[in-house]
Amino acid sequence: MLRVRRTVETKESGAAMGQVSIRYIVNDVDAAIGFYVGLLGFAEVMHPAPGFAMLSRGPLRLLLSAPGATDASGAPGGGGHALADGTLPTPGGWNRFSLQVEDVAAQAARLAAAGVVLRTGVINGVGGRQVLVEDPSGNLVELFEPVLPEAAE
């Protein structure tokens, strides 16, 4: 079972935030939707243009943008918009969000059987066990199984 924490507290105020948004640059928005909705339990909130979709899972809102994406009129815009020098955002790297799971080894096996790329095997860390999986564009998602009470919800 995958779980997302219900609230996030800011260090500055200690106030609980109801929702957190993360933007991922993806090469193929439809393939990313299939991965996150079909394999990780996200829901599609909207997909108003080929280059953009918004998904949700608990308080986490995942914004998916294709490099060089345009709006419905064909005008450039959004998170995949090129910089002034023409540089396009690209997927990948090591930044990631973490989803809490009950049995990380079982989740890793299920995803590998579905053809998902695992960047690591199960790693035993200080507060728990984790595995890094890649979405269809190479963006990371960490599946985390806490072993210390402080690391859990």
Task: Count up the helices.
Answer: 2
What Rg, in angstroms, do the CA atoms define?
A: 16 Å
Q: Which fold name fills CATH's third level, the topology?
A: 2,3-Dihydroxybiphenyl 1,2-Dioxygenase, domain 1
How much is the average pLDDT? 86
Regarding CATH, which class? Alpha Beta
CATH superfamily: 2,3-Dihydroxybiphenyl 1,2-Dioxygenase, domain 1
Number of domains: 1
β-strand percent reads 25-35%
Strand order within the widest sheet?
1-8-11-10-9
User: What's the total count of β strands?
Assistant: 11
End-to-end Cα distance: 14 Å
Task: Describe this protein's structure.
The chain has one domain: 2,3-Dihydroxybiphenyl 1,2-Dioxygenase, domain 1 (Roll). The chain has 2 helices and 11 strands. The protein has helices spanning 29-40, 104-113, and strands spanning 2-3, 8-9, 16-17, 20-25, 43-49, 52-57, 60-65, 96-101, 123-124, 128-134, 140-146. Strand 2 and strand 3 (16-17) form a beta hairpin.
Quick structural gist:
With 153 residues, this protein is of the alpha+beta class.
Which characteristics define this entry?
153 residues; alpha+beta; 2,3-Dihydroxybiphenyl 1,2-Dioxygenase, domain 1; four-stranded mixed beta sheet; 35% strand; disordered N terminus
List the helices and strands and how they pair.
Elements: E1 2-3, E2 8-9, E3 16-17, E4 20-25, H1 29-40, E5 43-49, E6 52-57, E7 60-65, E8 96-101, H2 104-113, E9 123-124, E10 128-134, E11 140-146
Parallel strand pairs: 4-7, 8-11
Antiparallel strand pairs: 1-8, 2-3, 5-6, 6-7, 9-10, 10-11
